[in-house]
Amino acid sequence: MNVSLEELINKAKAGCLVSFPTDTVPALAVLPEKAELIFIAKQRSQDKPLILMAASAADLWPYVKGSDVERQIWEELVSKYWPGALTLVLPASHRLPKAMNPIDSTTIGIRVPNCAIAQTILAQTGPLATTSANLSGQPPLQTIAEIEATFPEVLTLETKAHQGEIAGMGLPSTVAKWTGMNWQILRQGAIKLDNSAR
Questions:
Q1: 29 near 130, Cβ under 8 Å?
Q2: CB half-sphere exposure, 87, CA atoms < 13 A
Q3: Which of helix, strand or coil describes residue 48?
Q4: CB-count exposure of residue 89 (10 Å: 0-12, 13-18, 19+)
Q5: Cα–Cα–Cα angle for 183, 185, 191, nearest 5°?
Q6: What is the pTM (predicted TM-score) of this model?
Q7: What is the rounded distance in angstroms from the CA atom of residue 20 to the CA atom of residue 157?
Q8: H-helix or E-strand containing 135?
């Protein structure tokens, strides 16, 4: 269902499933504690955790935990690539709702998108559980029409709300997991990183 930007933000805050553009592919998003709604809608297996997306790194740090040295390494990488198409998988703090990563709640993927409309939404909703808008195992959907056809229950933005917003690049984000010593690249996406990234 097509709604205005204001209504989409209000419904997201109320716990409804929403979709909006990002700098990579369109996102399905919901409040972190309602994350099971995404797993159900996408028919996604529980061992595929979701990404916590926010308008700024400051909104995400409370959901992760690490030593001062680790935090410094993470912040250096973030200052280089955020906002942008890089997802970091880090040790999760007790603040993370188990619904985000039902099988292994010790880690969480976090990202700040380089997309004005996504940032506008996230700045008002706070961090949201997100994933690409598609049925599990299918290619990411690229248009509002495709998203509405596949997920009639999901709220999408009316077109005039994001005219002038550049469509995402269609490539998923790069995913890098912190091993405690260095980065392990889980998915090479829009940003090219190697395992020695610091």
A1: yes
A2: 27
A3: coil
A4: buried
A5: 105
A6: 0.93
A7: 7
A8: none
Q: Spell out the per-residue pLDDT of the chain, length 198, in tens.
A: 899 999 999 999 999 999 999 999 999 999 999 999 999 999 999 999 999 999 999 999 999 999 999 999 999 999 999 999 999 999 999 999 999 999 988 999 999 999 999 999 999 999 999 999 999 999 989 888 899 999 999 999 987 655 544 556 778 899 999 999 999 999 998 888 876 555
Tokens of 146: 């495709």
Residue with tokens 């880690």: 107
| Amino acid code (one letter) for 198 | R
Nearest residue to 32 (alpha-carbon basis) of 7, 11, 13 = 13
In the β-sheet with 18-20, what is the strand arrangement from edge to edge? 18-20, 27-30, 128-132, 51-53, 107-111, 86-91, 174-178, 183-187
